[in-house]
Structures are given as structure tokens and as C-alpha cells.
Amino acid sequence: MNLQPRPLPLETIDGLRPPLSGFPYFDYADRFPFRPEASSNSLGNASWLADASFLVYGTADFIAEALARSPLRDQGFTLEWLGTAEDNRGMVLSSDTALVVVFRGTRMQVRGVLDLAELVLINQNDLWVDSQFLPTVWRAGGHVHRGFLGAFEEISDRLDAIVRAKSPRQRVWLTGHSLGGALATLAAAHLDPSVIEGVITFGSPRVGDRAFVISLPESKLTRYVHRDDWVATVPPTLLGYTHAGKLISVPGSPARDVFSDFQAGLGEVKAALTGMAKDLRVRMGDLPFKVSVLADHAPVYYATLLGNALLDSADRES
Fold it and tell me: Which of 9, 20, 109, 205 is least surrounded by Cβ atoms within 10 Å, i.e. has the fewest?
């Protein structure tokens, strides 16, 4: 099977805003299927989970269509929701041997203004969750982010029911990007450690203090961070927050050149504005998005670069 590396995304607002139509979600899963028994350091599982954490940002129809085009259906995976299909906090991908809970991160939505402009906005509910950064008590000890805890409590009963209903053969994996990574971390602290096989997060913020981290099955938790991803640096350590699990840097991105990015960005802004003037329509999604600490957080980078790293690793071993 001749698999090609994934091209790097366009660094525009729409090019980095999830989900991305046409992205080859799980296209490597035929050659590199998910391995429920693998360790949380498995690059193959990390690539698979990065695709899942990217895809979960889509609507129910978008997700269902992407899964139908992928190898997952033939591999026996089925889809459930954390919440409803219309308003979900994540999805569950199940097979005979795996139960993968994928928590969704903060949504970015497009709003039309009198058919003259398209604005890209953060979902207000998710923004409220993210903004409640003061710590609150965690029942097993320590303190956690108040907003993250509130969002987790909304779906904890549903998570418990899904885990209770699993078969003995199914191994539980937790994952998510950004806010989704924070929820996956809370889920790891909430569930019995013996139930959890692995936890992999992407661009996750800090969730709690040191006492909270002690309550986690840290040996099963791996967090990936891409380049200068700013979200992985908040909330501040000044408030007692600390990261959990093993840190792995996402490979494959060249170092940022701020001056070159600035020059390229100016040219792309000019081109985008010229096109908008001709069409008499403002499209925020066409504007460049090269602010490294924010652009590097985009889930398309995690899915693209980890997929490419997986191919590189397999080629070196062959």
C-alpha cells in the first residue's frame, strides 16, 4: 500500500479551523489499525487518536460521513455520542476490543452578517467553560479548573454508563484536543484506574494542581504538544496548576521565523482583501493566521504531523 504524507495545512483561519472538509481522516488505519493493547506511547495509536480528536469537532452528519469513507466501519467500529448528536461533548468509537472516548474541544463557528460578511467566532458556551479558570475542589483531592469540571460533570453520568456497559474484552482509551484533552484528563481521574488502558491528549491546557495530578494514573497518560502551542501553557502555574503525564513534542514542523511569517502574512492579507473587495463580501476565514502560539494549536497540525511521523517511522523500519 503506497501511502503519501499529508500536506501541511494552509495557514489561514479556515485552513486551521476544525473540522476540515476533505481531510483524509483515518486513511492510515488500514495499514496501522488501532491497537487497544498498546502502551500510551504508541505512535500508531497517537496518530489514530489525533485524527479522532480532529474529526470530533464536526457536526453529526460530517462525522458520520467521514467515518463511512474510512476503514473504521470495516474494522467493526461503531459510533455513539457523549450527549446528543446535535449537541455533543464528544463521541465514542467502539469495536470488539476497544472503547475509545473522544472529548471535543472548543468550537469555532461561522456567522453570516446580512449576506455581506462571514465572521468566525468562539462558541459562547465553550468560551464560558474556558474562561472559568479559578480552581475549585476536586473530590479525590486537590483543585481543578472550575469551568472544565463543570463541563465534565454534565457528561460524567453518561461516561459511567458507557464504561459500565462495555464488554470485558474492550479496553478503554481516552483522548481529546484542547478543552477535549482537559476533559479526557478529568475522566482519567474520575474512572477506576484499572479500567483505563491509555490516555493521549493533544494541546491540552493544565487541568489541576499537584494534589490532583497525584490522583491520576500518570503512567498511562501521554500529552502531545505542537511547537509553540499556547494553550498548553495555561492556566498559569502561578495559580497552582501543573501538567500531568509524559510530554512528547510533535515532530515535523520547522522552527518559526517571526519576520518571515510577518512578511508572508502581509502579502496574504493584501491578496485576501483584494479578493473580498471584488466580491463585496468579507470572509474572515480567508485571512492568514500565522500567530505562532495560536496557529500551532490547530488540531489539523496534530493529525497531519503525527500521521506523517508514523509513515516515516514505518519506512525507517522497513
Answer: 109
